[in-house]
Amino acid sequence: MVSPSPEEDTRKVQTAVIGQAESDWPVFLPYDHDDFDRFMRGRTRDDFYCGVLLGGCGKKLTPKRYTEKKCHFAHRPPVHCRRTETGEASADHLYIGQALRRWLLRQGYQDAEVTYLDPGSVPGGAVEVRFGQNRSRLIRVQLARLSLREWQETRERLADGHPHVHWAYGPYCGLSHSEVDAAGHAIRISCRTEGETREVYVGTQYPDNSLAWSALTVCRLSDAGIITPRLDTEPPASSTPAPAPTPVAFPLAPGTIAFTAATEVARQDDRTRRLYEANIQPIGSAVVSVRISLPHSCDPPLPHRLHVIKGTPLLLPLADSHSSEPTWLIRAEGFSSLSGPADPRWPDLQPAPPPVMSKPQEANAFTVGIPKVGGGYGYLTSHEYKQLSRTQRRRYWQKVRRRGEAGSVAHGTSSTSSAQAVTGATWTKLGVTREAVVRSVRDALISAARRQVCVGWHTLAKAAGLKPEDLSDKARAKILVAIDRPAGPDGVLLSALVISSEHTPVPYFDDILRHLGRPHGLRPIELGQVRKREQARAFAEYSRASTADS
């Protein structure tokens, strides 16, 4: 791998933002050309900007691929940019802000608001995240240096307006020792390059200068602020009486424990979490029945799937349990689901039988005498349809109508209404069903959410085997409404990830909200806030499943 050299041209830019110049969604361009190719999948060379929140000029950046030196972004001439920080750490304040927003969403806070203070400074000023009822709680990540007097004045000012202020400190601000003196410990935050991104890590600093790091995703939130696994196991000394600590809490190795057959326990002592009884198996050990505590924001684990606990879970005893019940509790912050019903690493786990799903008809091809077809329920893709002769196309639609009539008989509906439903769900000119387009576009949006990017209709239409000009704005809006309607009035909006060819919001986003029964008729600034919030929810929701699919 090509390593960066501090003597190289400092005009080369390693970080950018996506979507628009004012965006706070950062990207880091890997140095190596192989990593560059993976990074560019699903992206175009027009997706990147020298972000205003990076201290940049707001102009587009072009990613440059090299084999003999490190890959980087470059400005398009003429260049009039006064950005001073361009290295891999130059967007850390944005990575921290986005990571805290996703983390708080998993803690049950959907209204987090991120503010970047003096973002063009070195190394990024400060990040403030307000959340909770009336946004009365505040996390302040201090990155730039402050004098002791400025720090004390800022603490007093923030404490006047917020009942809970939680401080964290970057690697260069020089204030963590003062926090240790004041509170007995300090929360540190740092970013590390991992693959194609910068991951956020949290550390606990004690008076003896010891510092233990862990991923932000395995930390939890309490009234005292960010609680790291070390704080859970080694609470710092305090001059004020503290609640009795948990007698025993064993940290467990990440990625070694799987579980299945999870059923929710009716009694819940903590409203922010759910309790499940499940069969678990550590790698190399036997299956045992335990209780698992998960955040309320996590989707309930399906009993007929295998799940792997993410992060560093804690093993605690259940002192009040009877001998016939599980005697151990695993406190976890999330899990990922495996695609198959078995895994050789956990050979003794037996999932519950999957639910029986009724199918309207068999999903095999029904176009006898026509070349082998693809797509759901035997429908042709647009590419396959174009290869048929006129006679074959006529026979194809005859088969479609007959299938609709057969379905109407099976479900007790009229053949006329059924035929209308089938033909109404098909673009005859394109030779592809709307159901297939909706399914393909939804898969492409989920892929984008997992990669933390927004996409346009050039990518979405290609995923459905179409061209962008094949779909009018009205058709596009109907497709997105069909994708988001099953999520209900409070579900994640994948349509928020769709942008126009100019990387601006699509003009029919308010119409989508109206058809979904959500607040609509909003001003542009309000629509922007809704899109930004829903993008963060989509990124957080589908990043949970990315590990299982990788």
**How many helix segments?**
14
Bulk shape: globular
Strand content of the residues, in percent?
Answer: 15-25%
Task: Extract low-pLDDT stretches.
Answer: 1-10, 237-246, 320-324, 357-379, 407-426, 546-550
Radius of gyration: 27 Å
Helix content: 25-40%
The computed structural class is alpha+beta
Q: Care to describe what's here?
A:
This protein has 550 residues and is an alpha+beta fold. Helix 7 (390-410) crosses helix 8. Strands 15-20-21-18-17-16-19-22 form an 8-stranded mixed sheet. Strands 6-7-8-9 form a 4-stranded mixed sheet, sandwiched between helices. It is globular, with a radius of gyration of 27 Å. The chain contains 14 helices and 24 strands.
Task: Tag the structure with descriptive keywords.
550 residues, alpha+beta, 8-stranded mixed β-sheet, 28% helix, 21% strand, disordered N terminus, disordered C terminus
What is the element layout, followed by pairings?
Layout: E1 15-18, E2 26-28, H1 33-40, E3 48-49, E4 61-64, E5 72-75, H2 92-106, E6 113-117, E7 126-131, E8 137-142, H3 148-161, E9 164-169, H4 176-183, E10 186-194, E11 197-205, E12 211-215, E13 220-222, E14 225-227, H5 229-233, E15 250-251, E16 257-264, E17 273-282, E18 288-295, E19 307-309, E20 314-317, E21 328-331, E22 335-337, H6 382-386, H7 390-410, H8 415-424, E23 426-427, E24 432-433, H9 434-450, H10 457-463, H11 473-484, H12 509-515, H13 524-543, H14 546-549
Parallel strand pairs: 8-9, 18-21
Antiparallel strand pairs: 1-2, 1-3, 4-5, 6-7, 7-8, 10-11, 11-12, 13-14, 15-20, 16-17, 16-19, 17-18, 19-22, 20-21, 23-24
